[in-house]
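Let us practice reading a record.
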Amino acid sequence: MIHVRNSLARPTLRTFGGLLATCACILGGCPADKAKSTAPADAAADGGLDGGLDGGVGCEDDARGQTYMPGMSQMGKLSTLKFELVTSDPGPPVKGNNSWLVKISDPSGNAVTGATLRVTPFMPDHGHGTAVKAKISESAKGYTVTPLYLFMGGIWQVTIDAKTDKLSDSTVFSFCIGG
């Protein structure tokens, strides 16, 4: 199977590593494909090549993937902001276009408005993001992020960076996207 990798980021060691992984996949098979080959012979009959519900991607039991629930929240890395994934449409997030509603609050629970957000989807196992840049708009309900384009199955880490005049923080929501 040939896997095509696409990265629009400026070249980095990670991008170069992704290029090497692409060449390895073309020439001799991908490590992910080899991992799937250990699945039972009848696994495809119950939902995927690896027997899971993720379409054969093999990440449904990956500890990096969070379980999606509307209203899930977590503190940012610096503990200065709280990030709530109010909804994902569709929910849970799927391969293709998604729309997220995100609320941000300060440590006292007050809504943070007027923040500048940057949303960066990234596949750590492949070393790439997505070419489609999400648009972010603010309303009384929070910040709408759309389209959040997750174009292939696997673990996606979506980093949300938020900055105001006084506060800044970031968090990562990580999901297994079925293939």
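A brief commentary: The first strand starts at residue 72 and ends at 75.
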